[in-house]
């Protein structure tokens, strides 16, 4: 294999990446072995240095052969422990740099990517299909639907809003990755913030929201804080059916303002609580199955809180409801 040769600082790279990495000399012996490589294979740095990589294992299938693209292989250590690995190589000035990790980890990443694509595609196709159906009906039956015209147009507008919200959520997730989230910081009253958040949820759900906000003020980006509060309200709606009230409370403690959103719904099972703020994580329940979603709402809330130097907490009990607390300091 021919490749451009580059110079790399092995120790610096080993501290930056989570994968196991090793350096091979031109002759194929191990000249450097990271701590991650030792942890993954169970072979210490002392045992690896100066030996051919393949000789470190009791058995390797297929024989090692690296390329710029990942290559999967299986190794058995001397204690007969089996490890499925995936590795790729880079030609460097004095040999080869090998990067490898557990195959199961890469499989999980691929599965997550597929699930994301499937979920987002499904969520986008639904409003597109609805818009197309109503637009086609209006075009092909202009006289028959004269009385339903406003209703059809309202549906098209609603579905277009859903598409816009989906795109906004995905773009915001990208901004979170780039860490370019907080653009401004200014005072805003909790009451004004709630009004802005209510504009983002369904009209039929607004009547359920009860505010107890007193004369409390927050310091932050009004648009982002309104989005965070709206996401918490949307979550409360999904997890509490019927017309059960949703309470929003604000309180000031020193230099930090807390916003609490409490529902009286089905609650969130304890096994889900550690993961609900992770990107694309969704708690599937019969009550929420029809509502869809991208698994980004609570992730965005957490990132908005962190961007302001704050945090978001959750407390939940089965059949009693869930309370989210958003804490925003006056200064990050």
Task: Tell me the layout of helices and strands.
Elements: H1 10-16, E1 20-25, E2 30-33, H2 35-41, H3 45-48, E3 59-61, E4 71-76, E5 82-92, E6 95-102, H4 103-140, H5 149-178, E7 186-189, H6 190-198, H7 203-206, E8 209-212, E9 217-220, H8 222-238, E10 246-253, E11 256-262, H9 297-307, E12 311-317, E13 321-329
Parallel strand pairs: 8-10
Antiparallel strand pairs: 1-2, 1-6, 3-4, 4-5, 5-6, 7-9, 10-11, 11-13, 12-13
Helix pairs in contact: 4-5, 5-9, 6-8, 8-9
Give a structural overview.
It is a single chain. With 332 residues, the protein is of the alpha+beta class. The chain has three domains: 10-102, PAS domain (Beta-Lactamase, 2-Layer Sandwich), CATH 3.30.450.20; 106-178, Orthogonal Bundle (Helix Hairpins); 186-329, Heat Shock Protein 90. Helices cover 38% and strands 24% of the residues. The chain contains nine helices and 13 strands. The protein has helices at residues 10-16, 35-41, 45-48, 103-140, 149-178, 190-198, 203-206, 222-238, 297-307, and strands at residues 20-25, 30-33, 59-61, 71-76, 82-92, 95-102, 186-189, 209-212, 217-220, 246-253, 256-262, 311-317, 321-329. It has a six-stranded antiparallel sheet with strand order 2-1-6-5-4-3. The chain has a five-stranded mixed sheet with strand order 8-10-11-13-12, covered by helices on one side. A two-stranded antiparallel ribbon has the order 7-9. A hairpin with a 2-residue loop joins β5 (82-92) and β6 (95-102). The two termini are 51 Å apart. The model is unreliable at 1-7 and 285-291 (pLDDT under 50).
Distinctive features:
alpha+beta; 13 strands; elongated; 9 helices; 3 domains; 6-stranded antiparallel β-sheet; 5-stranded mixed β-sheet; disordered N terminus; Heat Shock Protein 90; 332 residues; Beta-Lactamase; Helix Hairpins
């Amino acid at each position: 294999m021919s490749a451009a040769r580059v110079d790399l600082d092995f120790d610096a790279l080993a501290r930056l990446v989570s994968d196991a990495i090793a350096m091979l000399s031109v002759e194929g012996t191990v000249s450097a072995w990271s701590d991650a490589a030792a942890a993954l294979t169970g072979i210490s740095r002392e045992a690896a240095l100066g030996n051919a990589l393949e000789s470190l294992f009791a058995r390797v299938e297929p024989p090692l052969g690296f390329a710029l693209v990942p290559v999967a292989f299986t190794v058995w250590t001397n204690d007969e422990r089996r490890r499925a690995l995936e590795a790729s190589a880079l030609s460097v000035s004095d040999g080869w740099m090998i990067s490898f990790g557990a195959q199961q980890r890469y499989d999980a990443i691929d599965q997550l990517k597929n699930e994301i694509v499937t979920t987002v595609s499904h969520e986008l196709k639904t409003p597109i299909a609805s818009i197309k159906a109503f637009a086609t009906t209006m075009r092909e039956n202009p006289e028959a639907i004269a009385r339903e015209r406003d209703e059809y147009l309202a549906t098209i507008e609603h579905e277009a809003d859903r598409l816009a919200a989906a795109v906004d959520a995905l773009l915001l997730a990208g901004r979170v990755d780039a860490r370019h989230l907080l653009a401004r910081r200014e005072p805003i009253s909790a009451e004004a913030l709630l009004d802005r958040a209510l504009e983002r949820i369904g009209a039929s759900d607004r009547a359920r929201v009860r505010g107890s906000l007193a004369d409390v003020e927050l310091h932050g980006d009004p648009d982002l804080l309104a989005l965070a509060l709206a996401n918490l309200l949307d979550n409360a709606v999904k997890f509490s059916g019927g017309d059960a009230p949703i309470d929003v409370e604000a309180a000031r403690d020193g230099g930090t303002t807390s916003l609490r959103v409490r529902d009286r719904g089905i609650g969130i099972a304890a096994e889900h609580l550690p993961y609900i703020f992770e990107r694309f994580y969704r708690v599937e329940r019969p009550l929420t199955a029809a509502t869809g979603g991208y698994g980004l709402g609570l992730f965005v809330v957490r990132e908005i809180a962190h961007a302001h130097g704050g945090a978001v907490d959750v407390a939940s009990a089965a059949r009693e409801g869930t309370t989210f607390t958003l804490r925003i300091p006056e200064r990050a």
